[in-house]
Fold:
Amino acid sequence: MRRQAARGWLERWEAMQDRYVYQREPRFEAMGEILEAMGKGPRRILDLGCGPGSLSLRLLRRFPRARVVAVDQDPVLLQLGRSAWGDFGGRLQWVDEDLRRAPWGEGPLRGPFDAAVSTTALHWLSTRELRKVYAGVAHVLRRGGGLLNGDSMPFSPAAPTLDSRVRAWMHRLYRSDPTGTGGESWTGFWRAISRVEELNPELEERARRYPSRHSAENHLRPSEQVRLLRAAGFREAEVLWQAMSNRVLVALR
Ligand SMILES: C[S@@+](CC[C@H](N)C(=O)[O-])C[C@H]1O[C@@H](n2cnc3c(N)ncnc32)[C@H](O)[C@@H]1O
Structure:
């Protein structure tokens, strides 16, 4: 796909995701700030469930000396990212891999990484799968390195009313256009891109890999995530940024 066309699709992706993820752009910004707060600035970063590279790109621009290994198993999104940005001057490596079966420590997933990051992706994994992924990430992060997971995580059982009110409010928000970018729905985006003939091989492969709209989702609360992270070998974990139920959970190796 030509670069300009791919960039057009990426703009549509960003507008669509902005509509679903409350305060998405401030969350990206916060993740950059957290990485700065953690040290001199990461040199090797792993982006888990990178999609077309939204977070990878922002971090490459923010940290000019960083390199990113961007992992996803969606062939369409990987193709859009590759066509739009290439290898970003040799600093971005796209990896087609299922995180549930990833060969941690081998090939492009060979450590040590200074940071592992993820946005709106790890909730797609079941608890058992996430436990394995956290263990794999712990294996490839250097000591003192951090995992930053930006995702929606439910409130504690002690706040059921807040949980249901915020959930209902978020649901109404999806239906409006909170950032005014004219973003389409998830289904609308995929319906539109499925008509792009040159993406047929990737679309067919995507349909094979994602036969239903989504895989299992874990709905883990931060406290449950922290338990998994500690069991995987992380020393500390804390939510460092939050807007409603959208959070950035940070764990230190
Ligand atoms: C909603 S998108 C978010 C993409 C990007 N991080 C962003 O913030 O725009 C979720 C991504 O997670 C990826 N993903 C889900 N499960 C995965 C798995 N088991 N292995 C690799 N990628 C996965 C999906 O393919 C999808 O690209």
